[in-house]
């Protein structure tokens, strides 16, 4: 039996251990989920039971939420934190049933990672599902042209996520229709109800994710604003993109909107752009979001 043990540690946050191990499998029927993996509530159906998923994602908040949702549904989850690591994992000999591939990642983006995966004949049939904060038809076309099989717009809900995975691993009960991009109703600053619904209605799980986001928010905003006000405003784009994704996932729609505006401006930076207006808008959203979210903790 071969195995790999890995460790990540951050001062003040703790340590995370994970391992890959190879076990003999039976081809006679469905793979059972490993005991203890998934944390499903007794008596509930685990819709992804035993499905082996490679999750390629670099955003820490999204990693926590996506991995937790998948494991609760019985999936077995392996993590790659950038596109190059995803390619390496896919080629490692470990069998995966599906890849969830974030499009915007460091080192190698999800589009190029998928192209490199498709160069290997043994991986030609591996389903790759794009995860992206962009909802345009052009973005969807870029994903499909790179060799991805499908497209999920962030923030997605647990039912959409499981339905898409089940469709591509061949266990869906009916053909899946492409779901429309999520819309943001209601409060200008915060929509906890929509975020809670997307996470399956588990308020304790949502409160933990929201609490972590709010703790990290001041530093994340400082990084974005510092880059925006610095000598190279374009460097704010990836930072703003990461903040947009985290904020949208937990329902911080005001922060997500302000960060998205900064990302768009930074990607096509023009001399004379109103840096201070963009920065002040994002900073104001922090105050409003903290106020609005306090009742959910």
In a nutshell, what does this entry contain?
With about 300 residues, the chain is of the alpha/beta class. The chain contains 10 helices and 7 strands.
Describe it.
- Helix 7 runs antiparallel to helix 8.
- It contains 10 helices and 7 strands.
- The strands form 2 sheets. A 5-stranded parallel β-sheet has the order 4-3-5-6-7, sandwiched between helices. Strands 1-2 form a two-stranded antiparallel ribbon.
- By secondary structure, it is α/β, with parallel strands linked by helices.
- About 12% of the residues have low confidence.
- Helix 1 links the parallel strand 3 and strand 4.
- It is 45% helix and 13% strand.
Key words describing this protein structure:
297 residues; alpha/beta; 5-stranded parallel β-sheet; two-stranded antiparallel ribbon; 7 strands; 45% helix; 13% strand; globular
Give the neighbour order of strands across the main sheet. 4-3-5-6-7
Number of helices: 10
Uncertain ranges: 21-43, 174-186
List how many beta strands DSSP finds. 7
What is the arithmetic mean of pLDDT?
Answer: 83
Main beta sheet strand tally, sense and closure: 5 strands, parallel
**Which range best describes the helical content: under 10%, 10-25%, 25-40%, 40-55%, 55-70% or over 70%?**
40-55%
Class by alpha and beta content:
alpha/beta
Q: Return Rg in Å.
A: 20 Å
What is the CA–CA distance across the termini? 44 Å
Sheet-strand content, in percent, reads 5-15%
Q: What are the secondary-structure elements, in order, as H or E?
A: EEEHEHEHEHEHHHHHH
- Shape descriptor reads globular
């Amino acid at each position: 039996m071969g195995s790999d043990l890995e460790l990540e540690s951050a001062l003040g946050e703790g340590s995370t251990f994970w391992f890959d191990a190879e076990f003999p499998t039976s081809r006679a029927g469905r793979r059972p989920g490993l005991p203890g993996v998934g944390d499903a509530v007794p008596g509930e159906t685990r819709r992804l039971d035993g499905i082996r998923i490679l999750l390629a994602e670099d955003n820490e908040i999204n990693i926590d939420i996506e991995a937790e949702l998948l494991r609760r549904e019985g999936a077995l989850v392996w993590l790659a934190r950038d596109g190059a690591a995803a390619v390496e994992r896919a080629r490692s000999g470990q069998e995966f049933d599906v890849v969830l591939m974030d499009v915007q990642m460091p080192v190698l983006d999800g589009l190029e990672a998928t192209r490199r995966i498709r160069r290997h004949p043994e991986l030609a049939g591996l389903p790759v599902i794009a995860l992206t904060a962009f909802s345009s038809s052009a973005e969807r076309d870029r994903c499909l042209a790179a060799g991805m099989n499908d497209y999920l717009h962030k923030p997605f809900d647990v039912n959409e996520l499981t339905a898409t995975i089940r469709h591509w691993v061949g266990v869906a009960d009916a053909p899946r229709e492409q779901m429309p991009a999520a819309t943001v109703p209601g409060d200008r600053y915060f929509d906890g109800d929509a975020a809670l619904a997307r996470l399956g209605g588990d308020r304790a799980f949502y409160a933990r994710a929201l609490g972590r986001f709010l703790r990290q928010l001041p530093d994340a905003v400082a990084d974005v604003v510092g880059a925006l006000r610095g000598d190279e405003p374009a460097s704010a784009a990836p930072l703003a993109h990461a903040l947009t994704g985290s904020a949208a996932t937990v329902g911080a729609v005001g922060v997500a909107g302000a960060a998205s505006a900064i990302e768009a401006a930074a990607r096509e930076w023009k001399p004379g752009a109103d840096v201070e207006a963009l920065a002040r808008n994002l900073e104001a959203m922090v105050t409003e979001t903290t106020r609005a979210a306090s009742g959910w903790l």
